[in-house]
Specification:
Elements: H1 18-27, H2 30-44, E1 50-51, H3 54-65, H4 69-85, H5 90-96, E2 98-99, H6 102-111, E3 118-121, E4 136-139, H7 152-158, H8 172-181, H9 188-197, H10 210-220, H11 224-242, H12 255-268
Parallel strand pairs: 3-4
Antiparallel strand pairs: 1-2
Helix pairs in contact: 1-2, 1-4, 3-4, 8-9
Length: 269
């Protein structure tokens, strides 16, 4: 099984990136070489991020500027400048000590769309969960993404309501919006309550794609108004059948006829 995390190639823009231009203007042309080296590290290791610690700055400073405290400070200055300018995410750098960006993650997802599964840490995500491909498995913070023996099915089950677009569980409002935007003639509340009861799984216990399920309901479920009208027609039809025995022409009976009938009944008695 292929447990490769990173990718072998990554895109480089032909046109100059304004954010990188600002970094090089502030930190010098060497900054571009530092940025390119960091991108190689990001894409080559985990594919969508890399850790950034003092040891990483020390190694890079040694390779780029010959080492020393001054070189480490210069590397850190360039990286911090990149975060301020948006080349890397400032929030992720400060909170999680990693280098990443939304663009880096989008490039990584595009490059790995043919892989059977791709693991990504929830805390590091900058791409919206709803936009993730179906092969992405989101790991919680307590899951070691380097554990190659991790049970993918276990992660998928524990995160079944949030893992990817295939198994994501919608809110009632999302169901309503989807029905409205796609002109579906379903009852959103009825649909939501039904699948909420079965934990958004099919009869085989597999997590469903709720949008496809809604489309299927639209093809098979009769609108409530139509059902109500049909029931009303059926009720009226049943009422007519019930009263059909009373729907006969009335005979005119004379007093002599009644007297004759009484005599016959007395004779039988």
């Amino acid at each position: 099984m292929n447990h490769k995390e990173g990718i072998d190639y990554f895109p480089v823009k032909c046109a100059a990136d304004k954010a990188i231009e600002l970094v090089t203007a502030e930190c010098g042309l060497k900054a571009y070489a530092v940025i390119f080296t960091m991108l190689k590290k990001i894409y080559g290791e985990h594919g969508y991020y890399c850790e950034w610690q003092r040891e990483d700055a020390l190694l890079l400073a040694s390779n780029m500027f010959g080492g020393g405290d001054g070189a480490v400070s210069r590397i850190n200055h360039i990286v911090n400048c990149c975060a301020r300018r948006g080349v890397f995410s400032l929030e992720q750098l400060e909170e999680n000590g990693i280098l990443t960006s939304e663009e880096i993650q989008e490039n990584f997802l595009f490059a790995t769309k043919r892989r059977k599964s791709v693991k990504m840490k929830r805390a590091y995500l900058l791409v919206k969960v709803a936009l993730l491909p179906d092969n992405v498995i989101i790991l919680d913070e307590n899951v070691n993404i380097l554990d190659e023996n991790a049970d993918i099915l276990k992660h998928s089950k524990s995160n079944s309501k949030y893992t990817n677009t295939l198994s994501i569980v919608p809110t009632l409002q999302e169901v309503k919006d989807y029905a409205t935007n796609n002109s579906l003639k379903i009852n959103p509340e009825k649909f939501f309550e039904y699948y909420e009861r079965v934990d958004w799984k099919d009869k085989y216990g597999r997590q469903i794609n709720w949008k496809k399920a809604a489309d299927y309901w639209n093809k098979t479920e009769r609108p409530e108004k139509q059902t109500a009208n049909n029931s009303k027609v059926k009720s009226n039809s049943s009422g007519n059948k019930k009263n059909q025995f009373n729907n006969f022409s009335q005979r005119n009976v004379s007093s002599s006829d009644m007297g004759e009938l009484e005599q016959r009944l007395l004779q039988r008695g």
